[in-house]
Amino acid sequence: MGSAKDSGGPDGLIVVDKPAGFTSHDVVAKMRGIARTRRVGHAGTLDPMATGVLVLGLGRATRLLGHLALTEKEYVATVRLGQATVTDDAEGEITSSTPAAGLDRVAVDAAVARQTGAIQQVPSKVSAVKIDGKRAYARVRAGEEIELAARPVTVSSFVVHDVSESEAEDGTAVTDLLISVTCSSGTYVRAIARDLGEELGVGGHLTALRRTRVGPYGMREARTLDQLQESLDMLPIAEAAARAFPRWDVPEKQARLLGNGVQLAMPELPAGPIAVFGPGERFLALVEDRKGKAKSLAVFG
C-alpha cells in the first residue's frame, strides 16, 4: 500500500473489473465507500454497457490518471451487422434493419482492413465529445441534430475471431462478429461497429464490449468490486508509474535539485511523460522534455 501521509488515506492505483450497468462515476462512488476516502478518480471512461478494465487512482495517485488515460487500450467486443441504432450500441433505439445473412467473408475482411491503421473516425453522436462546451450526448438528448467532425485515431489491431448468424427480436436476419481491437486513446469501438455496418451496407452496432487492457494494466490485475470490498488490492504509486512510463533514475544530488524546482537537463528518452526515480526506488516526479529540460507534470517525492 502506498504512503498516506499526504492524503490522509490510501495512495495507489486500483484496476477494477467494471460490472455491466455501472457508469464509471458509479464505480468511483463505490470505491470512495470501500476505501473511505474522497480522493478517487478514474483514467478514461467506460459506458454502462461495457465491462472490464477501469483504472482508478486513490490519494496522490489521482495525479497519474490524466497521463494514463492517453495510453493504448484493448477490447473484446461483439458487433451486430444488420441493425443500426441511434447510440451505435444495444442501449439505443434501432434506426434501421437490413437483412445481413450470408455476408461475403471477403467483403467483411476488406471492411475490417479499411477500419485498421491510422484512420479518420467520427465519434458516436452520444459520446462525451464537447461541442461548444456541451457534451454531444446532452445535445442529442435535448433533441438537437448534431454533426461531429472526424478525428485521427489508430487501430493497430482489428481481428475477427468468430462469425455467427441469428435472428434479431424484430425478425431481421443478422450476423454477429466476435472481434478484438487494439487502439489509441480516443477511439470509439461503437463507431467502429457503426462504420463496419455502413461499409457493408447493412448497418451495425455494438452488442457487447469488454476492455481488457489500459496501457500496461490488464485483466490479470483487475479485481471485482466485491473482491475489493474484501481486500483493497492496490499498486503502490512507484510501481504503477514504473510500469506505465519510461523510467529515468537520478542520483541524490539531482533528486534534491528536482525537488527544489530546478529544471534538469534531460537525457535522450522516449517522447511523453517520464517517471523520475531517486536512490532507494523513490518515485520523485512525472516530467516531460521541454527543449531539453525536465518540466515537471506532477511531483511525488
TrEMBL record:
Residue span, tRNA pseudouridine synthase II TruB subfamily 2 C-terminal domain: 245-300
An example Gene Ontology molecular-function term: tRNA pseudouridine(55) synthase activity
Pfam family, one: TruB_C_2
Active site residues per record: 47 (nucleophile)
GO biological process: mRNA pseudouridine synthesis; tRNA pseudouridine synthesis
EC number: 5.4.99.25
Keyword Isomerase: yes
Claim: Ribosomal protein is one of the keywords in the record: no
InterPro entries: PsdUridine_synth_cat_dom_sf, PsdUridine_synth_N, PUA-like_sf, PUA_sf, tRNA_psdUridine_synth_fam2_C, tRNA_psdUridine_synth_TruB, TruB_C
All residue ranges annotated as the Pseudouridine synthase II N-terminal domain in the record: 33-189
Reactions catalysed according to its record: uridine(55) in tRNA = pseudouridine(55) in tRNA
Domain tRNA pseudouridylate synthase B C-terminal: 190-231
Source superkingdom: Bacteria
SUPFAM superfamilies to which the protein is assigned, alphabetical: Pseudouridine synthase, PUA domain-like
Keywords: Isomerase, tRNA processing
Role this protein plays: Responsible for synthesis of pseudouridine from uracil-55 in the psi GC loop of transfer RNAs.
Entry's family note: Belongs to the pseudouridine synthase TruB family. Type 1 subfamily.
Name used for this protein in its record: tRNA pseudouridine synthase B
Name of the gene this protein is made from: truB
